[in-house]
Amino acid sequence: MSFALAPETPATAPLFRSTQSYNFSAKSYTVGTRKSALALVQTHLVADALAHLHPGTSFPVVHSTTIGDRNQSTPLHLLSPYSSSQPAKSLWTDELEALLAKGDFDLLVHSLKDVPTTLKEGFEIAACMKREDPRDAFVVREGLGYKRIEDLPEGSVIGTGSVRRVAQLKRAFPGLKFEDMASWHALEPRGNLNTRLSKLDSPTSPFSALILATSGLTRIGQTHRITCPLSSPVLLHAVGQGALGLEIRSGDQTARELLRRAGHWQTEWACGAERGLLRVLEGGCSVPVGIETTVEEIQKGEPGWESAGYGEEILKSLDGSSPLIHFSGVLPIETPLPSPSDTADTVRSTLQPRRARIKLLASVTSLDGSVHVLHEAPEAVVASWRGAERWGEECARRLIDLGAGEVLEDINRMRREREEEDLRRAKEANGVNGNGNGNGHGHGNGAEVQMSA
């Protein structure tokens, strides 16, 4: 296992309010992440914020090269480990989680949109940092004067490899063409945002514009490249987009203490609803599910405060062993974190009631854009993170009733057929026989780990 130092990101403002600090036995806690430039920028933001919250404690950033990083050109479903029952998203998390389990990392930082909605046993998302703007961004090639996607002439080529974006935009703009930039000059499709921008601006580029996440452009200091944001009714963003999830080993009390003030409860509740919806829909990286969610706190005495909040009864069952995020928004900042042995009765006496209005708009779109199932859920009052998650699950079931189930079945059928054909061609190209012998793809499963300071 090799380690190497990498440049530190510039100091930034803390992502949460600093309160009293705790003394921890160790003076250094290792923060793990992927090797990509954006992942490193995001992780340094988290490490800087944690250092601000815990003076005298260091949070070195260590990056590991995942299988999704090592192979930038092969379709995700051809990379091992992958199966139809295992989301492609796990290609970004499996190897990192193995290192977390071994103790090489104390916590992981993820783009929440890349994290499977159901984690493996032994791990939990403990907190989510305050969300950046979750909308997608329309980015026009330098020198072109277009101000909106509606201004592009028919036949213009837009660069994006996201099936969610392509499906929704095909429906809205059938005269435009959509291509993955990976098909041009072997550009890394899952790689560096700055590289994609430079390729867009190349004199030989066939692309008029790109669709990128506003949050990523913001974090790498490229907001000036955003021509305009995209939102409903044109384009709903991905589940969890713009949010950073902090993953720890389940029951790691030290990590829980480190992170308990790092979370932003409105972000956690909104993303809890979104991930609950996606889990019911069994969607992954390659399913065109779009969403927009808002969470607005209800102050005591305001309309809605006296109503029974969705998920309020769940608070009665929380005990000291419950995942940290289950306490999101309801454990006062000055109250000690429950210990693993605390009973539900003990924990209940420490919680504060909270209410929030949650609004959710979600869609499922066929790959060709011809079928678009949209559900604008009625406003609901929720009282906990789990209540928000359950509301998302309810909205997913309503989407299925409206016809999303048939769309997803068609997509899954087409994916299985494509996987079988691609795997057959890959085996033929690499001389792999029916027993799986041969040269294979040579991707390997070993994780390369390097330190970033």
Automatic annotation (TrEMBL):
Its EC number is 2.5.1.61. GO terms for molecular function: hydroxymethylbilane synthase activity. Residues 270-296 form the Porphobilinogen deaminase C-terminal domain. Residues 421-453 are annotated as: Disordered. Transmembrane segments: none annotated. Residues 433-445 have a biased composition (Gly residues). Pathway: Porphyrin-containing compound metabolism; protoporphyrin-IX biosynthesis; coproporphyrinogen-III from 5-aminolevulinate: step 2/4. It catalyses: 4 porphobilinogen + H2O = hydroxymethylbilane + 4 NH4(+). One of its GO terms (cellular component) is cytoplasm. Pfam families: Porphobil_deam (PF01379), Porphobil_deamC (PF03900). It comes from the Eukaryota. Its cofactor is dipyrromethane. One of its GO terms (biological process) is heme biosynthetic process. Coiled coil: none annotated. InterPro entries: HemC, Porphobilin_deaminase_cofac_BS, Porphobilin_deaminase_N, Porphobilinogen_deaminase_C, Porphobilinogen_deaminase_C_sf. Residues 30-256 form the Porphobilinogen deaminase N-terminal domain. SUPFAM superfamilies: Periplasmic binding protein-like II (SSF53850), Porphobilinogen deaminase (hydroxymethylbilane synthase), C-terminal domain (SSF54782). Keywords: Heme biosynthesis, Porphyrin biosynthesis, Transferase. The keyword Electron transport does not apply. NCBIfam families: hemC (TIGR00212). Belongs to the HMBS family. Tetrapolymerization of the monopyrrole PBG into the hydroxymethylbilane pre-uroporphyrinogen in several discrete steps. This is Porphobilinogen deaminase. It comes from Dioszegia hungarica. The lineage of its organism: Eukaryota, Fungi, Dikarya, Basidiomycota, Agaricomycotina.
